[in-house]
Specification:
alpha/beta; five-stranded parallel sheet; single chain; disordered C terminus; two-stranded antiparallel sheet; disordered N terminus; 21 helices
């Protein structure tokens, strides 16, 4: 191990000094951060975050994402400063930033976590690998979660996931030897990066402090009815963990969450039966979702094309032609005429979050009732989700659109979902105030009101609220007929191949070398 030394830089490289550059991306923490820990054991650390304008030009990015990141960067900078070296922030294309730093510092190695990102991030990482290789600078990319790179087969994947989750967390360094002569740099605003305004007044706050508060409150009190209340948006905002954006940007590691959940499960198990409440069921259900997190990310890692292409190629001619922009605009603008669908979209716009079942319903409605190709709705929702995680998002979008070839078709009835998940219409009235005066009888199907009731309720269909954009019963029937034909003949054989590649199961793990 090289000795820890102080570096003084005055416009040139200091001889015989080796700086370890830690590149932060979607891992904005110092705890359970193996690249930071290992880099600190080898010499002075230059912790770097690069705000890349090219990333923020992509159609799946939004100001709400950057706002969450900024809050997380501010806390990360404080945490690193307390260790001895504040976070360095630069704006620009990553290889140009690295080139500038290399001209001033002898960079011995670059350390980062592996990232399962979108195609833009993949191409960016490839450029970095090529840049470092031509300059003989080592690149160390370490796993951050249960996703396995170069995975040839899913056999044994669950065992690999379990091994990662039970491993000891990487302890934060006790101190970092500072790199002197380098300015920390300002964290740019959304305007600086050319990001369009994106009002989200009830967005979750970023940063590790917020993440720890959410985790503690969920495991101590909020989560007791998680298993029973996660499906309805009436209860899910409080009963769900709300950790998803923190996992997406790495203010917490998923291993931290899994281990905290298991510790709480052991604590509950040790209590007298009369004191356990419903915690055992809630915590077991929560761990199942944590397992899903990496399971779905593995799909994009193993088959990156699913960001753009149907996983099951028999679906290639299903919705590719005749994209109905009017229906798409109505869906995006919460103007479909189905109160529960529109209320979910309004809530998502204002909060940056909606529970899993409602995400599935939104995507299902766009795919089946409106018969829209999944790609454009998926990109729109990516901009709306503060917790946008590409590895989960595109696999889930295709699953809800029915293009995986291995999942059951989920054609959610928007009226039944409304009646089941918001029976009193509280959620609808909260987010669609024009429907606030509707009698309970009509809150789920306002188009069925007679004109007199409409006027008395101050909600005239066609003026104050739109009529349904489709006949949802007829649309669902037509979609079911078209989708059913895909599970026959050669399409079924391809589905078996997809299951072999992407299904989670026990057995031997094989990794391509």
């Amino acid at each position: 191990m090289q000795p820890l030394v102080r570096v003084t830089v005055k416009g040139s490289v200091v001889d015989n000094t080796h700086v370890q550059l830690v590149w932060f991306k979607r891992d904005l923490r110092v705890v359970d951060h193996a690249p930071l820990r290992q880099a600190a054991e080898r010499g002075p650390v230059l912790p770097l975050y690069v705000a890349e304008p090219g990333l923020w030009e992509q159609p799946d990015t939004a100001a709400r994402h950057w706002a969450f990141i900024v809050e997380s960067l501010l806390e990360l900078r404080q945490a690193l400063a307390a260790l001895g070296q504040p976070l360095v922030v630069r704006v620009g294309e990553i290889t140009r930033v690295l080139q500038d730093l290399q001209q001033r510092f002898a960079i011995d190695a670059v350390w980062s976590h592996e990232e399962t990102g979108d195609n833009w991030a993949y191409q960016r990482d490839e450029r970095v690998r090529d840049f470092l290789k031509t300059r003989a600078i080592a690149l160390h990319e370490l796993p951050q979660n249960g996703v396995v790179r170069r995975l040839a087969c899913r056999d044994g994947w669950s065992r690999r996931w379990e091994s990662h989750m039970t491993a000891q967390q990487a302890v934060a360094p006790e101190r970092l030897v500072p790199v002197e002569g380098i300015e920390a740099g300002d964290i740019p605003t959304a305007a600086d990066l050319g990001i369009k305004p994106d009002p989200c007044p009830h967005r979750q706050r970023g940063g590790r402090n917020s993440a720890l508060e959410r985790l503690e409150s969920f495991l101590a009190s909020r989560g007791e009815a998680y298993h029973a209340e996660m499906s309805s948006p009436v209860t899910a905002y409080d009963s769900c963990s709300r950790l998803s954006p923190h996992l997406a940007y790495g203010t917490l590691s998923i291993r931290e969450v899994v281990q905290a959940n298991r510790s709480r499960r052991a604590e509950v198990k040790a209590q007298p039966a009369a004191d356990r409440g419903t915690w055992a069921k809630a915590l077991a259900a929560f761990e199942g979702r944590l397992h899903w997190h990496c399971h779905f990310m593995q799909k994009l890692e193993s088959e990156p094309r699913i960001e753009f292409e149907n996983l099951h190629r028999a679906c290639d001619n299903l919705r590719e032609g005749g994209f109905d922009t009017d229906k798409f605009d109505a869906w995006c603008g919460a103007a479909t005429g189905f109160p529960f669908v529109d209320a979910c979209m309004r809530a998502l716009e204002a909060t940056g979050w909606i529970n899993f079942r409602m995400r599935a319903m939104l995507m299902s409605f766009a795919s089946y009732h409106l018969w829209l190709h999944w790609r454009q709705p998926a990109v729109f929702l990516a901009r709306r989700f503060t917790d946008y995680e590409p590895g989960i998002h595109y696999a889930q979008s295709q699953m809800q659109a029915g293009t995986t070839g291995i999942n059951t078709f989920r054609i959610y009835n928007p009226v039944k979902q409304s009646q089941d998940q918001d029976p009193a219409g509280c959620f609808i009235r909260q987010w669609l105030p024009q429907l606030a005066r509707l009698p309970d009888r009509w809150i789920h199907t306002p188009w069925e009101m007679d004109r007199r009731t409409q006027r008395m309720s101050r909600c005239v269909i066609g003026d104050d609220y739109p009529p349904p954009v489709v006949d949802h019963v007829a649309a669902a029937k037509a979609a079911r007929q078209q989708m059913g034909a895909l599970r026959r003949g050669a399409a079924r054989a391809e589905g078996q191949k997809i299951l072999q590649r992407h299904g989670s199961r026990k057995g031997r793990l094989r990794v391509r070398t």
